[in-house]
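Design job #97: recover the sequence.
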């Protein structure tokens, strides 16, 4: 989530892109219309639109030789909901609605989504590991450096947490390539 926000704010951190979003909030526009309204050249407007499209903020449709650009309000609303959702609700969703697991996560995960410390209790560690597994996509292969980067975005000790994820049968590895195992194979807390 932090990476998504960072990329969004980078995309919006330019006066011309903010002005484009403002114009598109009023309705669909072509590159030519945007260039005229902003006093910019068409290639410059196209460059800014490409950045906004890459973030999913702007969509385009072709009509003959003209491409009409519009603001993707649904994408913006989804981003706003994720940003504004209280951390406790997010942790409750991660815990699958289980009150005890939500309480464990609230004790070990700060408001920024960082793990304060690795729980000593195996049962609580299992809860934290299941929470951490939400960062890994099923049916995707990860290099060891990528696994470390994902874990380090949550806690500095990637080696310990990576071993724990493998030990709890949440991640499998072969030749420094990792993949997420189905939840039915995961060991719960205390079983590792």
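Job complete. Output follows.
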């Amino acid at each position: 989530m932090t990476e998504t926000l960072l990329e969004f704010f980078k995309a919006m951190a330019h006066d011309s892109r903010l002005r484009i979003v403002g114009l598109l909030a009023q309705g669909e526009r072509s590159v030519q219309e945007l260039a005229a309204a902003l006093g910019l050249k068409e290639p410059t407007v196209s460059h800014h639109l490409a950045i906004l499209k890459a973030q999913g903020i702007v969509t385009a449709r072709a009509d003959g030789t003209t491409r009409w650009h519009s603001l993707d309000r649904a994408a913006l609303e989804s981003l706003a909901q994720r940003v504004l959702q209280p951390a406790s609700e997010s942790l409750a969703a991660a815990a699958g609605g289980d009150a005890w697991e939500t309480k464990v996560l609230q004790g070990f995960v700060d408001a920024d989504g960082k793990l304060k410390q690795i729980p000593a209790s195996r049962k609580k560690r299992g809860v934290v590991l299941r929470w951490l597994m939400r960062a890994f996509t099923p049916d995707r292969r990860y290099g060891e450096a990528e696994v470390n980067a994902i874990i380090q975005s949550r806690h500095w000790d990637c080696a310990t947490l990576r071993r724990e994820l493998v030990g709890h049968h949440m991640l499998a590895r072969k030749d420094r390539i990792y993949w997420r195992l189905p939840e039915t194979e995961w060991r719960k807390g205390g079983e590792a």
